[in-house]
Amino acid sequence: MDWMLLLEWVIKSFVLSLILLGGFAYLTWFERKVLARFQVRIGPNRAGPYALLQPIADAVKLIFKEEFTPARAEKILFFLAPIVTVVPALVVAAVVPWGPDIQIGSYTLRLYIADISVGVLYITAITSIAVYGITLAGWSSNNKYALMGGLRSSAQMVSYELALGFCFVIAILMSGSMRPIDIVDAQRNGWFFLIQPAGAFVFLIATLAEVNRAPFDMPEAEQELAAGFHSEYSGMKFALFFMAEYTKMITISSIAVTLFFGGYLGPFVDQLPFLGPIYMLAKIVALLFFMVWVRATLPRIRYDRLMAFGWKVLLPLTLALVLITAVGILLAQEVNPNLIWITPVISAFAGFFAIGLVDRSLRRKAYAAR
Amino acid sequence: MTMDLMGFILVALIAIATAIGMLYSRNAVYAALFLVLNFVSVAIFYLMLGAPFVALSQVTVYAGAIMVLFLFVIMLLGAEKLPPAEVLPWQRPLAFVLALLLFIEGIYWLSVKAGTTAQIASPDATIGTMDAVRSMSMMLFQEYLLPFEVTSILLLIAMIGAIVLTKRVDKKGGQA
Fold this sequence. Notes:
heterodimer, A: mainly alpha, two-stranded antiparallel sheet, 2 strands, about 70% helix, B: mainly alpha, Four Helix Bundle (Hemerythrin (Met), subunit A), extended
């Protein structure tokens, strides 16, 4: 084993973890500020200039809170569940490339931790493991509401994972590779968002459901379930769930950027490789803003409608999109490269068709009868 | 002892331990979690054999999707506590006899076929790169297309069967 290489991995993993955790802290600040602006409020403004110290104050508060374990909880799983939730949220970021290779003297710095040939599959594997934390948290709390919350959010995540997986397939089809670096490289002639807009949009919806964000925030359906799967958690254990949700937001935005929004690509990125991470960060922040925007705009979807939307709308839609993409690529390869632009047109049509179906199903039966 | 062998023995021990843990835990949730660990250790075997695609599919499909559904059903039905007494008293001696038979059979075939089993072809050099995925899909969609399609139709039928079974029948006998 090359010790330099090992050291590089350790340092890069450490830096990435720090970025994700620091990002988590300031994402809470960002969300509160942006939400406040949407609601014509000022938002947090006490701790430091622009309340920049607010995350630190929150962290200190959470650390010194009393840790409480319900008397008849399953102690081991109750303790393990927050860890099982946080770890996948962090490790999934390992395959995301943050920029092109940077030459420092004779040394090549690669801006990713792991170059896995089946990186996309790695992402699906880790996200499918991430469900356990929430399910186990709900079950081990020995609380009806927590159990209901855990069951709901795990059912939701499993349902939306299929749509998410098909969106991965779309990106794999268009790039012809499962390596995240190849997928980014394949977008030099046009982001996949342009070729497959409906796919990118479905991906964003599915990611919102995957990270349990509004309008799919079932565990936070306070009126029905108290706080859902983390009702019984307090102190640092609660903070870990909080951390997992926001870290997942960051990592899943970075994955969305890699798959559909050109990754680290941007003007002059080949001449000045250090621009890569900056573009990447800018795109991630834009997607995070989108997520907060959606939360500020849309009310929560009722649970049965949420499941119906996942299974009856998103799943058939993504299946159709995979077919459309495959046919479009085949036409472009066999007939004329310009035919690739048929794909966005037909997929946008499919998307509008799906929206029309949702619109119809959302109307009340009394109106539909007329 | 090489690094590979040590790693193999370690993972094998974990796989066996989790399998035994699954069989002996009196709580169905813990049994399911042991099974998840078992699937993950099997995935690590695939990784060691140089098949990352199979390994990660194993984690996604078995450890992820299928076991989550198992856990979901266990929790939904509240069936996590298994009865403390033996339900099938004849099962243990039967299992013992069958395991003994399997063991003898294994020893027999190992001693007879030992010469040939030593010559298992080493994994292809291209495995671990994109080519492995590509060549596997070529095999799957060209050479074994018919079995592949037959399997998918079988799965589809199973899915339709599940939907039909859960469909409620109202009192008049019609489908609700």
